[in-house]
Design goal:
Strand order of the largest sheet: 1-5-8-7-6
Number of strands: 8
Order of helices and strands: HEEEEEHHEEEH
Radius of gyration: 16 Å
Number of helices: 4
Structural class: alpha+beta
Distance between the termini: 27 Å
Shape: globular
Length: 185
């Protein structure tokens, strides 16, 4: 992502990468090691994204956004809002009510976090992105203070929309995200 961003030219097309990670804890630029309570055998990786600590693993949909923010005409706050709104819209298509919180980026269902955001902007372009808990083992979140919040609970989509799969969620997000990112408002 960093290499792609550093070698972009004015006409380089934006990209959206949708994937899963093997089990890993990541610490953002502001990540405080004291929020890693008991990582055990799960590797801990320092990253250059914003935010604190989170967990990535199989069953979680990760969307990396490689966007030229200048060309898109949006700033980071508007980008965060659009990403959150895209997730809220995606969840609503499955009858799941979700919301954002002021001063706590991400998407929440009944107070539990279902999607985390962590971005990095260099040379007017962003990379990193969001992680949506679809059908993953939530136990590793108990080994950290998710996003640096003591006692924050996390949830996953399969518990609110039984039978949902990662593949269908990725396909839906791949359609919804571009609509939100290409809006002119």
């Amino acid at each position: 992502m960093r290499a792609f961003t550093d070698t972009r030219e004015a006409d380089t097309p934006d990209e959206l990468w949708l994937l899963e990670h093997p089990p890993v804890f990541t610490l953002g630029q502001a990540g405080c090691p004291e929020h890693l309570l008991a990582p055990g055998e799960i590797p801990v990786i320092q990253t250059d994204r914003g935010g604190q600590v989170t967990y990535h693993g199989p069953g979680q949909l990760v969307a990396y956004l490689l966007l030229d923010l200048h060309r898109a005409g949006i700033g980071i706050k508007r980008l965060v809002n659009r990403l959150e709104q895209a997730i809220i819209e995606l969840l609503a298509t499955h009858g799941v009510a979700a919301e954002r919180r002021a001063n706590a980026p991400g998407v929440y269902i009944a107070g539990s976090k279902i999607a985390s955001l962590g971005l990095r902007v260099r040379h007017g372009c962003c990379y990193h992105g969001l992680a949506l808990n679809v059908d993953l083992d939530l136990e590793p979140f108990g080994r950290i203070n998710p996003c640096g919040y003591v006692g924050l609970t996390v949830t996953r989509l399969v518990d609110h929309a039984p039978g949902i799969t990662l593949i269908e969620t990725a396909q839906a997000l791949g359609e919804i995200l571009p609509r939100h990112l290409n809006r002119r408002d």
